[in-house]
């Protein structure tokens, strides 16, 4: 009995959010369109409550629940808090957009909350089975969200592509997991680590499993050579959903990689280091070079995501505490940047008009100097120009890779980042030195303007004083990985 | 009991495995989608047979009941109702084959080398302990499902809930071109809503056509 109580308290944030998702679904049935805003309030309240319980039940030690299928450690709590904040921002930014596009319904909010629960399970999973179910919960909600605007032909096509490739990736992941299970006889992350530490298991079979697991993870992260779906899905989805796909799930994917590779297959670091290295280098090259040729803003940001994922893999590839800390720092910074970037795209969209081409940004400075300035910060940060957050994130990752002895990879990554700076700076050129093509006023709710401004300015503020975020990342990794 | 050095179990296994492989291959190579679905049913049946050999009786029965009985029958209905364009489906098959075949073949060879008898043979992997006659596979499955695997089990139910929500959100909607009827509105209908009584003069039918034909008939008679 005592056990069950501990289990339930440990998983309280998940239970609350799950309950809130169902409450949203039911409340939605009894609301008129004019009162629908209550759903928005409920969703935000759910995130707030979950955050409250995540903070209050936090202990600096590692705790296992549900017979070792669920873990509550510093990393999971930190990542969960980041996920709440990110999702809350997404709700703020997307409210007007989905109201104008007839997507402001209970299902949107319920599916987003379900996907958040999936991410939390991925962050806290301690058995391959739990991790996988969490991943499926996240993916299934995202597939449905992409297709939610059913009359949109592009969105349906994007959902189809996303679904088929996602299912393929899940299959690969499962096959790899079954190989690891066959060799170690356990699904539990720490048990697998113990068995492998004792040197049992045939290496060739374990490597085969590892290859499939890494391929599946790369699919989900969107790293080259498994990146085909990223640009199409980003372009086809409604911008509100693109914003969700491109931001917070990456935090969960980071935890997923840490749990599978760094915790359970720690002894095979030599093997997966090479795989991650190849994928990191290819992602950085392809992401940065292909983005130059894009005229669609969302597609450009998709390739930009691929190159950012390459940098995260570079940090993970170091397979050291420093590497993991820098990768966590990078992915957190990436989420802040992406949210601000897509927030501005949502700000520029209006009823019947999607701001998604680079030409839509022309002369933004004349239309609204403040928005242009915010976009300037975001682009500087993505390009990695000091003193923004993006610079410090790239710096940390490259430093960790250098310490691990990958000098030439670091030199190459810096070169590619310089090439990548071209297309970010082109956006700034369009905003400041071109004449606007349409002069329609930019309308947005007050709260969105304020929070978006704070979000973009945070890139500057944390970039100047990165110690705070760095301390959090250090705390999360050092307390969770022994 | 041995035949030509093979145990009876081995014979059953190899027979089932051969049928399973052929059926699996036919699922993707047959031209008719209905046949493909039926081959999949055959594959499920033989897989259930192999599971029986592994003493997983409950799972074998569940596979037949759930997948063959429910999922595949539904699937078959869908396949029969859809107008699938086979030519479009096979478009690009021959173009992709030169790349796909070597890659697939390479992967298959690698997997056979690793998953083969050298690493997973009967002499490497110990046989599971024999169970007494009253051992219940189902009870054992239920015991771990609701204790050790409680969390994944509950989460799987959440995944199903999401599937329901997603399916409803994607299909059930007030479409402008929808021809669905509202029974509540139907029973509330009154005569005045549908029937309009108009006062008008009585119409007199003009007999021009009849007259000319009658004249023609007259001429013919003369």
From TrEMBL, chain A:
It comes from Methylotenera oryzisoli. Residues 127-419 form the NADH:quinone oxidoreductase/Mrp antiporter transmembrane domain. NDH-1 is composed of 14 different subunits. Subunits NuoA, H, J, K, L, M, N constitute the membrane sector of the complex. The chain crosses the membrane at residues 12-30, 37-55, 75-94, 106-123, 129-148, 160-181, 201-219, 240-262, 274-293, 300-321, 327-349, 370-393, 405-425, 456-477. Keywords: Cell membrane, Membrane, NAD, Quinone, Translocase, Transmembrane, Transmembrane helix, Transport, Ubiquinone. It catalyses: a quinone + NADH + 5 H(+)(in) = a quinol + NAD(+) + 4 H(+)(out). Its EC number is 7.1.1.-. It is a multi-pass membrane protein. It comes from the Bacteria. The gene is nuoN. One of its GO terms (molecular function) is quinone binding. NDH-1 shuttles electrons from NADH, via FMN and iron-sulfur (Fe-S) centers, to quinones in the respiratory chain. The immediate electron acceptor for the enzyme in this species is believed to be ubiquinone. Couples the redox reaction to proton translocation (for every two electrons transferred, four hydrogen ions are translocated across the cytoplasmic membrane), and thus conserves the redox energy in a proton gradient. InterPro entries: NADH-Q_OxRdtase_suN/2, ND/Mrp_TM. The keyword Translocase applies. This is NADH-quinone oxidoreductase subunit N. It is found in: Cell membrane; Endomembrane system; Membrane. GO terms for biological process: ATP synthesis coupled electron transport. GO terms for cellular component: endomembrane system; plasma membrane. Belongs to the complex I subunit 2 family. It holds the Pfam family Proton_antipo_M.
